[in-house]
Amino acid sequence: MLEAFLVSVITMATPILLAALGELLVEESGVVNIGIEGAMLAGAFAALAIAYFSGSTALGLAGAIAAGVAINAIFAILVVNLAVNQVVTGTAVSILALGLTGVFYRKLFGVTGKAFMVTPIAKIPLGPLARIPLLGPVLFDHNALVYFTFILVPALWYLIARTRYGLRLRACGERPEAADALGLGVIATRWQALIVSGALTGLAGAFLTLAYANTFVENISAGRGFVALSVVIVGRWNSWGLAAASLLFGAAMALQFGLQALGTVVPYQLFLALPYALTLVVLAGFGGQAAAPSALGEPYRRQ
Amino acid sequence: MLSAVAKPFAALALAAALISVVLAALGASPAGVFAALGEGAFGSWYACVDTIVKSTPLVFTGLAISLAFSGALWNIGADGQLTIGAIAAGAVGPHLADFPHSIAIVTILAAGALGGAAWGGLAGWLRARRDVNEVISTIMLNFVAVQALSWVVHGPLMEPSRAYPTSSPIASAAQLEFYFAPSRLNLGMLLAVALAAACYLLLFRTGTGFELRAMGRNRRAATFFGVRIPALTVWAMAVSGALAGLGGAVQVSAISHRLYEKLSPGWGFEAIAVALVARLNPLAIVPAALLFGALDNGSQAMQRTQGISPELVQVIQGLVILIILAFDTPAWSGLREQIFGASSEEAAAVPPVAEMPDA
Questions:
Q1: Could you tell me if residue B1 is inside a domain?
Q2: B341 Cβ contact list (under 8 Å, min separation 6)
Q3: Domain assignment present for A213
Q4: How many domains, chain A?
């Protein structure tokens, strides 16, 4: 029971954390990407469609990366190059991705209602570690995407806090004019962050279709991209904080299945609403934007 | 340079061109699809009237968006506010049988407005007092509202036989009647048009409207002129929510007469496209909403005859927003200045959407 719950927490937390880590890079460079939901959805769809028709999980993952990057590139052209409003652009990108995946899903898979299943990404048990009671199945018996996601946590912390590139990234998010004057290339840096984030978010989408549901349904991301945005705030723009916040939200999502299975008298909708309500409560309790990069969300135009 | 009026049309034309590419990729004939859309939306007197009916919620939510966005309050939650307004109307509606028609109507609509105002005002309060970004809070409140609706139609408001997940029908006294039955034309659109005029006056002819727009242009500068930002934030989000909630109540009172899951097909999000096509001008919201209502109405005929799923409408919405943003960006004016030199008359023209306050 406990073991199944904890495995479920890791499974639910992984796509949120993966997308949130990409968003962290983007926000450190001074951009808020609400289109992350759309990039995740596009990644989920591309992964399933390509894996289903090619029979190759690897090609599916590559397709998810390409789809996530493509969606973020649309966002980047408008937000980074044309300096238009980030919130409205991100919302439009999400609506666009929802529509495109819906239209192409019906076209490719018809309206038969038949589920188009793919073989899930293989689990890689880490030798003897996976045989440790409780800890083994919970921590050391997952697919490569899970390991990759959790290895990214220290890696991104190091990149942002300890490298010249991290300094450049943060300069673009804190004082873009100054960064530009120093020749750090605000436009290029923000594009790089959005490309990397697109790849990570696409993979997060692929996790939903290739590792979790093993099929695609419309709007399969179900707000996980938006939850990832909150995770960045709750995690105080620190990759360790992001990991902790993702596990918290993963637990809220895992809880809904556990409690539904118990058949309690509490209505199931309460549990379905739990991750979103929790986001509101945690944000209200944590206060808000004090730890955010100073220029976050402000379009940057060279004078 | 395109004029302020021509721009939205040019954006729509470009969107149509891009949609044609998508349709070609799907192996469908763009001409056939557009013809089916037009036929479904305007092909008969009945279709025209139904287009008006389908546009009505978009006027309410479009006004909600235009008011909030004018103050740089990025309310992405009109859908949730509409849903909560509908729940309030659906909860009150069955109990109004013994009241005169006019009182019952006013009560059910007021319930909807209050429900929406509470949902929007909560996001405003979180922004003003707890420093929680309204983008995140309104998105989260959308999801909570969806679950709240699901819960009430399976629980406290479920119809007495408990066979279907719907609420009890509202009393006939609380129903906005159809004037040209069997068409569903009702007073809802008239109310929406009156509210559009009221919102225009509020935004452009009152001190509060001026303060809201000032806050939208530059929050810090507005404080120096004595604008009480926190109070104005809560007020504007509550009014925005009330408009959306009223849209939900009108839908319940005139069309659905009861609650069921997935009451809104995404009117609150479509409203963002409506508001941007209207350049946030409340008077222009009405024709913009009619345009998107026609798309919604025509999409069913498109699905029947052309086999293209109605999600295509979302593709159009997303593209229209992106193209309007791209058309209006100040980056172009910078480019033009470099090439042609600065133009003072353009600077004085209607503020473009991209000059909308930055978050």
A1: no
A2: none
A3: yes
A4: 1
Q: Is residue B122 part of a domain?
A: yes
Q: Does A34 touch chain B (CB under 8 A)?
A: yes
For chain B, report the end-to-end CA distance as a whole number of angstroms.
27
Query: Residue A87: which of B74, B143, B316 has the nearest Cβ?
Result: B74
**CATH code, domain with B140:** 1.10.3470
Calpha distance A176→A261 (Å, rounded)? 51
What secondary structure does DSSP assign to B127-181, as a single string?
Answer: HHHH---HHHHHHHHHHHHHHHHHHHHHTTTB-TT--SSBBPPPPGGGSPPPSST
Domain housing A257: 2-291
Residue B322 is nearest to which of A96, A267, A272, comparing CB atoms? A96
Name the residue among A87, A102, A280 with its Cβ closest to that of B359: A87
Please check whether residue B183 lies inside any domain of the structure.
yes
DSSP-derived secondary structure letter, B352:
P
Residue B115's domain comprises 6-355
The number of domains in chain B is: 1
Q: Which residue has the higher pLDDT, A290 or A108?
A: A108
Confirm whether A296 is domain-assigned: no
pLDDT single digits (tens) B243-278: 999 999 999 999 999 999 989 999 999 999 999 889
Contact between B130 and A287 using a beta-carbon 8 Å cutoff: yes
Provide the residue type at A101 as one letter. T
Has residue A87 been placed in a domain?
Answer: yes
Which of A280, A302, A303 is the best substitution to test chain B (most B C-beta atoms within 10 A)?
A280
Whether residue A215 is contained in a domain is answered as: yes
The pTM (predicted TM-score) of the whole model is 0.89
Alpha helices, DSSP H, located in chain B: 6-25, 30-42, 45-70, 78-92, 101-130, 134-154, 188-205, 207-217, 219-224, 229-250, 267-277, 282-306, 312-328, 330-340, 344-348
Measured CA angle at B138 (ends B134, B139), to 5 deg: 120
Q: Which residue has the higher pLDDT, B302 or B148?
A: B148
Cβ neighbours of A100 in B, within 8 Å: 22, 315
Q: What is the CATH number of the domain that holds A28?
A: 1.10.3470
